[in-house]
Structures are given as structure tokens and as C-alpha cells.
Amino acid sequence: MGLSGIEIFKKLPKTNCGKCGVPTCLAFAMKLATGQAELDACPDLSEDVKEELGEASAPPVRSVVIGTGERAVKLGGETVLFRHEKRFENPPAFTLLLSDNMDEAEITARLKKFNDTVYERVGVVLRPELVAVKAESGDASKFGALVEKVCNETDAGLVLMNEDADALSQAARSCSNRKPLLYAADKNNFESMGNLAKELSCPLAVKAVNLEELSEVSEKLIAMGLKDLVLDSGARTAKKALEDQIIIRRAALLKKFKPFGFPTIVFPCEMADNLIKETMIACQMTAKYGSVIVMSEIEGHSVFPLLLASMNIFTDPQRPMAVDQKIYEIGATNENSPVLITGNFSLTYFIVSGEVDASRVPSYLLIKDTEGLSVLTAWAAGKFAADTVATFVKKSGIEKKVKHRKLVIPGYLATISGELEEELPDWEILIGPREASHLPAYLKQWSAD
Amino acid sequence: MTFEVPKVSYTGKIREIPLGREGNTVIVGGESCYPFHLFEGEMPHPPKIAMEVYDSEPEDWPDTALEPFADVIKDTAAWARKCVDTYGAEMIALQLASTDPNDKDISADEAAKITKEVSDAVDVPMIVLGCGNVEKDTDVLKAVCEVCEGRDLIIGPVVEGNYRAIGATAIGYKHTVVASTPIDINLAKQLNILLGNLNVPDEKIIIDPSTGALGYGLEYCYSVMERIRMAALIQEDERLQFPIISNLAREVWKTKEVKVPESEAPLLGDMKKRGILIEALTAQCVLLAGADILVMRHPEAISLVKESIKDLMT
Ligand code: B12
Ligand code: SF4
Fold it and tell me: What percent of chain B is predicted at pLDDT more than 70?
């Protein structure tokens, strides 16, 4: 994003046709300059101009892809320092570390756990994304064999870690179609590593002992024509890592400092002697700018909270995720099934529908449009007031689906029950539990008469 | 291209606020940089953790959270003492949850009595939090202020609807107030202005911009804290230059994910470690966003967070 709005404006068609969604070319140029619009939104740009502006409007932290197909992981692409300024783009990849010193059974077990660890939350799939294979045995054939095993047993993206350039090259060639991240080029070997990565079109990690050195090596690789780099500043304490991550991101964003305009790789696995503490450090790096986060183990009690943190930090702060206003039928409902109501914040919907589902009591869940706000937030904002709830219930068509007239409202909204009864005289208003987790027990004892 | 560290120049500073009774004070605030950005500013007082205790036996806690307190759970004062003696609590946060009209609805006098007992049992600075019902909190917190005269409590939540009554009483008895607002930087600023107009001294205000648990709205709270710190430190918004408190444990420990046993959800892993980590990671996130005081529950989560603070400071 080297260009100013005016500079961009000069290259636009200047027809003010409005097809890009803003009224004028100038307004569009301003949005492009601040990263709030995509070039593709204007249909009338020549290929030349597209390329020129594309280069100039590329995010200051380059997007780098590791892996291929469905398991390709996109990292970087960031344009802001704080999530509220716009949003963070690509959540970090939690990465399982495997060493060629580990015994076979251990590796098999860890890989299996890695593959099995997949969650669905709020309609989004969350999982650890990459496997890092590290050479520690000093035996190239052992390393090669482990890379092969990992390739066979998972289709996740890979990080190949070997200080021996020949051994790394051999292993990388055997799986270059998987686009692994090669770790790492340093001040001594950057030429051969750079050439290898170029030849195989693989992303390349750059490793240094401090930021100064990192910028030098990165700059040399850029000069060699490498585009997809991932940075390791060498920091191995929580404090230093925080500092380095912040400086790298700031330099890229505020100073357009090209050598730091890439995603990073960080190693909580080398910064703690147990998984619990490692998890704390990984959380810090999730919030503050780590991209590939390498963990010694993938265990549910650690990676699930980390994935929650990552999801929180990377959701779009401007647009709450919402579901449609309608009647959701959960299970094989009939005219005697319970009727519940809540708002259309995705998180609320998924939590509540999940609990109703788990109760195995087929139910109707009425989702009222609350503009993506949670129950109490919606109520406080006037989006869950008795009158609008009543209008929605009447119009929803639920009265044709059930014989009874009992409506379960969220426990936190006990205060609206009286008013709601007045607005819906045919209905009996039941105050449900406060927490959705108590719904299964509640529904099991619910009865239509 | 030579590389140059891009530093932020801060023009504002967070107020330093001493809490607790003389001889036993804890100081919070004083930052002249974003959280833990020690390469370009100072954090003279590392964030503090207040261990929470409840005014009556909790009913809906998972065993994993009850376990450390099993022997004291029926006696709030003993519970507080255990937090200090066994777990080294730097502060105590008494949650007067039973005063909630939708819950046990205990009276203001009863709440004040319990508060006094706890106050007598421990010396560390003490935070006293009402149930969140605007009218009830007014009665309860006024009573609490009175019986604990000279204890220099930190009381809250003081909100737009009751700041006059509680603020005035707090001034009278020299307690500190927790100014609470729902996740909105303008509301936070507004309430601080109102408290200022009421003559609550600036060194008697801590702000609470609200907290959600990891996976339950935390992101909004994280961002509002970051924004408050930016306004305070680089826009010199002096009505936002106050230490931040985050009352996080009660949010965390009511979520489903800390309560599901591993047998029901094998992929979520060990239930005890999971609960501890969800609390500790919630804390880690708000620390990085700018919190100065964390209200926490599980001793193991607390020691993790303490260690993390130490690692980030030194
Ligand atoms: C994140 C948040 C926001 C976000 C919005 C996020 C969103 N998409 O909703 C933002 C920052 C935008 C926001 C704004 C406001 N907020 Co707000 N917000 C929160 C916060 C921190 C978390 C809410 C959340 O996401 N919860 C998670 C979801 C899943 O919870 P839930 O929908 O309630 O669902 C649970 C239960 O209700 C139950 N359940 C749900 N449905 C059903 C249905 C049935 C039948 C049953 C039985 C159970 C059930 O199951 C779920 C899990 O157990 C809470 C405080 C807190 N810690 O909870 C305040 C809170 C809800 N907000 C509050 C307020 C006042 C506001 C504002 C009005 C402030 C203002 N004046 O600007 C605005 C209004 C918004 C607007 N005007 O646009 C107050 C409400 C006070 C009250 N008691 O009425 C709260 C409680 C904070 C406080 N303590 O003051 N908020
Ligand atoms: S679509 Fe292109 S030509 Fe039309 S107003 Fe937008 S920028 Fe200008």
C-alpha cells in the first residue's frame, strides 16, 4: 500500500459509475489506500493498471500459503496493528512438532491425535493446522523416513526443519508438491536455501539471532527474488518474543519495511518445560502476531482454549456473525414439541441449538432477528423487547405447528415475562434456565400439558 | 534498507492508585506504555490478581473449581483467609452474589455483616462487588461502605444508574469505586466524568469496561480495553487514564466448556486442566489488552498467570 489515495485515483477510469459500491472513483481510491476495499470491486480496470495497483495495494504483511488443496493454510495478509482498526485476517496455525528422535509408536499416536483434533464451533471448523518435522537425530535417512511417514498419515501442511541443507533438500524434493515450509535460511546458508525454495516454489522460513540480522537475511532473499518468506527472529523468551513480534508488525505496517512484511513463526515449544505454560505463551502469540505457532504436543485441554482465543481475536469486530430469523426445527418435531425463543447472534444460536440437540427432545427453536446481538445485549439495546418478540412469534407461523401455547424464554430475560404474557395473551410464558447448558435437564422434564 | 525500531511516543500516563489500608497497600496503574511494551515505556506496577470469595456456598461450580476450597466453602471469612495464607493472594474480591433479588436475595445488612467478617479476617486490600442489580447494589454497597469505614475498600459495580448514591457514600468513607460500563469507550469516559463532577477523587477510581469469557464475547472486551489504553496513552484522554479491573472468573466458570467431563467430550481433553487454562487464557488476553487487576478463582490458573506476568516483565 505504498500509494496515496490521489496517486491511486489517477489510475482509475474516473467515470464515477458507482459499480464498485461507492459513488465516485475518488472515494474508491481513498478506500483502496486505507485497505478498506478490494481492487476487484471496480470492473473497468485494464490488466496493466490492475497489476500496478495490485502490487501497490498488496497488504503490507504478505499472505503466504503453506500446504495445498483443502488443507492449504493462508497466513499473514495483515493490514492493522489492533483488531478494532479493521480486523485481523488469517488466524495462526497451531503446529505439532515431531522429531526424528521420537520412537515410532509415539509419532503414530501423536499424529493420530493431531488428525482427530477437529472442532466445530459457531459453524466454523477449528483445528491445529500444520505438522513440523524436525531433524534431531543427525541422520538424513531417518529424517527422510519421518517426512514420508507424516506425508502418508496426514494431508495437513508441513514444516520441514533441518539444519543440514542437503538433507532438507532431499526431503523437500520428496514432498514439494505439498508445498511445505522450509526451515530455515540463515545468514550462512541463505543462498542455497533461497535457491532450493525458488526451484521448488516452496515458502521459506528465515531464521536469525536478532531483528537486525533477520532484516539483513530477509533483504538478501528478497533481492534473490523470493516472495514467500516466514520470519523467525530467534527470540525464545516470552518478553523478547512479544517485543520482536510487535516491532516486526509495526515496521511492516508503519514503515513499509519490506524485509519484515511477512508472517512469522514462533516456538512456544522451546520456551517452556511443560505444555500448560507453553499454552500460555502460545496464547500471547495468538493475540500478538504469531502466525505459525509450534507446540510440543497437541492435547485437547491446551489446543481447544487456544483455538477459542484465536477465533475471538480474529473475528471481524465490525460485523457480528448472525443466523437467519426463522423457526429452526431440531429433531423430529411434532405438535407437542417444546417451543423456545432466542436471538440471532451466531454464538447464541449455536450454543442453544447444540444443547437442544443434545437433550434429544425434538424442539422448535424460534430465532428472532436481534441484529446479531446476544440475549442480554439485544435486550439492553431494545431488540428483544416484549412487543417485538410478540409480533415475531405471531408472524412466525409457530401457532400452526404446535397445539400447546407454551413459550420458553431465556432465563436472563425473566424480566420481560409479564409484559410478554400481556402481548401474547394466548401463550403461557415459561422462564427457562439462565445457562443453555441446563437446557437438556429442563427439556427432559418439559411437558405440553 | 537499514532497520530502525518503530517506537510509539506516548504522551499520557495511567494514574497510579494505591489500594487498601495503610501499611498494607497495593499500587496499581502507572503505565506509560501499552501493556508489556517495556521496550518503549514503563509499567512500574505489574498487574495484580485478586482471589474471589463468595458470600455463600456456590451451587453451580464444577468440582474442579470447588476442590481447592472444599474445606472453607461454607465460611466466607475462612475462605478469604485460606486464599491469603495458602495461596498468597495479593488481594481479595468478595462477590456478594447472594444479594441478587433473582437469587437468594439476602439483605443489605446481612451482606454488610459478611463483608465485615471477611474484612476482619484478612489484611490485604479488599474488593467488594455487588450482584449487578442497580437498586439492590445501591443499598448493599452503602451498607458495606459504612461498616467498613477505615478499611479503604474497593467497591462496585458503580454504574450510571447508581453512581450518585454510591459515589457520595464512598467519598464519605474514603473507599475506592469500580466504575462499570458495558463495553463502550464513550460510556466508560462519561461515567468517569460524572464521578469527577460528583467530586470522587481521581485516585479513588478504577474502571471496569466489562469482561466476557474466552469464546463468549471476550473479543469485544479485549478491543474496548485496547481502545481505552490507546485513548489514555496517545490521545491524552485524561478521563480514561485509570487502571482497569477485569472480573473474569465468574464468566469463565459458568461456561459449558469448563464443566463438560472428558468422558463426554474426549476431544476437549482433561477437564481440570482445560478449566484452568480457559481461565488463565482469558486472563492472558485481558492482560495483553490492558487490565491491571484480575479477579480470578482457581489457584493453579492464578499461579500460571503470575508466572506469565513475571516472564513478560523481566
Ligand atoms: C460482547 C457483549 C457486547 C457486544 C455485542 C456482542 C453481540 N454480538 O451480542 C457489544 C460490544 C456490541 C455490546 C454492546 C452493548 N451491550 Co453488551 N455485552 C457483551 C457481553 C460481554 C457478552 C455477551 C455475549 O456475547 N454472551 C455470550 C452469548 C452466547 O450469551 P447469550 O446470548 O446470553 O446466551 C446464553 C444464555 O442467555 C443462554 N440462552 C440463550 N438463548 C437462550 C434461550 C433459551 C430458551 C434459554 C433457556 C437459554 C438461552 O444460553 C447462552 C449460554 O449459556 C455481556 C456481558 C457478559 N459478560 O455476558 C455484555 C452485556 C450483555 N451488554 C450490556 C449492554 C448494556 C450493552 C449495550 C446496551 C451498551 C450500550 N449502551 O452501548 C450495547 C448494546 C448494543 C447496541 N446498541 O448495539 C449489558 C446488559 C445489561 C443488562 N443486564 O441488561 C451486559 C450484561 C454487560 C453489563 N454487565 O452491563 N455488548
Ligand atoms: S467502479 Fe471503477 S470506474 Fe466505477 S466509480 Fe468505482 S472506481 Fe470508478
Answer: 99
User: CB of A380 closer than 6 A to ligand 1?
Assistant: yes
**What are the pLDDT digits (tens) for A205-231?**
999 999 999 999 999 999 999 999 999
Q: Which domains does chain B have, with CATH numbers?
A: 18-313 (3.20.20.20)
Query: What is the per-residue pLDDT for A4?
Result: 83
Please state whether B15 falls in left (phi above 0), alpha (psi between -120 and 50) or beta: beta
Per CB-CB distance under 8 Å, the chain B contacts of A255 are 4, 6
Q: Is the shortest distance between the CB of A19 and ligand 2 below 6 Å?
A: yes
Is A437 in CB contact (< 8 Å) with chain B? yes
- Please check whether residue A317 touches B, CB under 8 A: yes
Chosen from A112, A280, A297 to mutate, greatest number of chain B CBs within 10 A = A280
Pocket flag, ligand 1, residue B209 (CB < 6 Å): no
Could you tell me which of A342, A346, A341, A352 has the C-alpha nearest to residue A323? A346
Q: How far is CA A354 from CA A332, A393, B307, in A?
A: 15, 22, 36
CATH 3.40.50.11600 for domain A326-445, yes or no, is yes
List the residue whose alpha carbon is closest to atom 8 of ligand 2: A25
CATH 3.20.20.20 maps onto chain A at 63-314
Q: Which residue of B has its CA nearest to A439?
A: B256
Q: Give the fold, CATH level 3, of A5-57.
A: 3-methyladenine DNA Glycosylase II; Chain A, domain 3 (1.10.15)
CA dihedral B52→B56→B60→B65, nearest 10 degrees, is 40
CB B275 within 8 A of CB B282: no
Q: What is the pLDDT of residues B43-84, one digit of tens each?
A: 999 999 999 999 999 998 999 999 999 999 999 999 999 999
Top-level class of domain A63-314: alpha beta
